[in-house]
Amino acid sequence: MNKSGTLYIVATPIGNLEDITLRALRILQEVDIIAAEDTRQTIKLLNHFEIKNNLVSYYEHNKIEKGKYLIEQLLSGKDIALVSDAGSPGISDPGEDIIKLALEHDVRLTMVPGATAAVMGLVLSGLPTGRFAFEGFLPVNKKLRNERLKSIKNDTRTLILYEAPHKLVRTLKDLRDAFGNRQIVLARELTKRFEEVCRITVDEAIEKYNVESPRGEFVLILEGADDKQMKEESINSWTNISLREHVSKYI
Q1: Sheet architecture: strand order including 132-136
Q2: Long-range contacts of 101-108 (CB under 8 A, 24+ apart)
């Protein structure tokens, strides 16, 4: 059996092209194939650094077909670099699926690290960084979204989410309805010229973006649940139910 090639998971800049690493540039030049989430975005990066290579698309709507093709190429001994539109592949994008496929086929894989918007937003937020939970994009389906929010409502860790500009206000309102008026940090255009990090409350964020038009992809960093508040809510939940409800809960 031929030795398989290597799948390189290559992080790319999230905005500022100067954040590319020397290792990433070398790998992008040396591999046999570059699998890109959006070839139109990746070609700009490659052209900027004068890299010419075999570029193929791998995104949500072709990941099954292209995933099989990429695995075949890897098993034949070819090296492949996996890149997303920006940041680290495998984080809230279809890169997660090809990574699983590669592992299932015993393909060697390694990471070429770099910028990740979630970590940068967390560090800049000023909120606790010792324990945090990354939730990515919330489900679009209302029922699934509400279930997700309910499941993390009492999480005391700092919460990190991603959101697109056209869905921002809806998400902020859902967060307010589920969690109350917590502290939130909204980070946008990270590493770019108009980078903005707003440290406000959820209500203030809703008010702000009801007036302003949201632009750019957002990282939302939300403070975790407060232990004292959770205890008060637990006490209130018991005092607000009837004796019959108390009994039925344990029968």
Answers
A1: 132-136, 158-163, 218-222, 183-188, 196-201
A2: 101/67, 101/70, 101/71, 102/7, 102/71, 102/74, 105/4, 105/71, 105/74, 105/75, 106/4, 107/4, 107/5, 107/6, 107/7, 107/71, 107/74, 107/75, 108/4, 108/5, 108/6, 108/7
Give me the chain's average pLDDT, please. Answer: 92
238 found inside a domain? no
Range of the domain at 199: 118-230
Helix extents (H) in 81-224: 95-104, 117-125, 142-152, 168-179, 202-211
Question: Tens digits of per-residue pLDDT, 35-65?
Answer: 999 999 999 999 999 999 999 999 999 999 9
* 3 — pLDDT class (breaks 50, 70, 90): confident
Q: Which residue from 206, 220, 85, 205 is spatially nearest to 164, judged by alpha carbons?
A: 220
* E-only strand ranges, 50-106: 55-57, 80-83
Residues 147 and 198 in one domain: yes
pLDDT score at 100: 96
Q: What is the pTM of this model?
A: 0.85
| 127 and 194 in a common domain | yes
pLDDT of residue 234: 47
pLDDT of 236 > 90? The answer is no
Please report, for the domain that includes residue 207, its CATH number: 3.30.950.10
Whether residue 174 contacts residue 148, with contact meaning beta carbons closer than 8 Å, is answered with no
Q: What is the CATH number of the domain that holds 99?
A: 3.40.1010.10
Q: Is the same domain home to 141 and 102?
A: no
